[in-house]
Structures are given as C-alpha cells and as structure tokens.
Fold Membrane protein.
Amino acid sequence: MRLSIIMAGLNGAVGVAIGAFAAHGMAGSEMDYARSLVEKGAHYQLVHAVALAAIAGLVHHVPDEKFLRFAAYAMLVGILFFCGSLYAIAFSGVTLFGVVAPIGGLSFIAGWLMLTAAGYRRFGR
C-alpha cells in the first residue's frame, strides 16, 4: 500500500496545481472550454487521490488486501486515462484523446466496486 500513499500524495499535489492553473492561468472566454476540462480533470484527480489515501489506511482493517490493491490500481488507471485525456484535450486541442476517457471512467467505477468488495469481505459476514 506504499504505492497508494505515494500516488495519493502526488496526485493530490498535481490536482491542486493544475486546478490552480486552470483558475488563474486560463483566463479569457476563448479558454472557457479548455478551462472546464482542466477543472473537471482536477476535481476527479483530487477525489481519487483522497480515495487512494483512504485505501492505504484501510489495509490494516481488511484481512485480504487483494481487493484494496485492485481498487488502488483501478483508480490510478482512471486518473491516467480519464483525467489525462481531459488534460490532453485541453492543452492540445486534439479531441481524439477523448476516446480513452471511458476507459478511465470504467476504471474509476471498478475501483469503487473493488473497495465495496473489500468492505463486504471484512464487514459483511
């Protein structure tokens, strides 16, 4: 779970930095669409950075950590593909990057479902 803690910290820092850049460095009506993409990506990145930290904190409370490990990896893939595609579109203008966003969205969903499974295995019996 060391990786989850490291990735939580790095993704939290990047999410804050890129969100601040969107708010302050992307001013002007011609940048509205790109700014909205960056803000959405930063929002999802920050939410999932917190989830990664929570997953790392849960490892001592769940007897079989395999579901937690899968949850963390799925959320990392989600950040890479979903948030990354939004950032790529915003900064390059190439909308083709959007084709990978659903992979990231599905990865986020899978991560949350794996977290659910870990909780069920620990507390549902």
Notes: The chain has a mean pLDDT of 92. Helices lie at 2-25, 32-58, 66-92, 101-123.
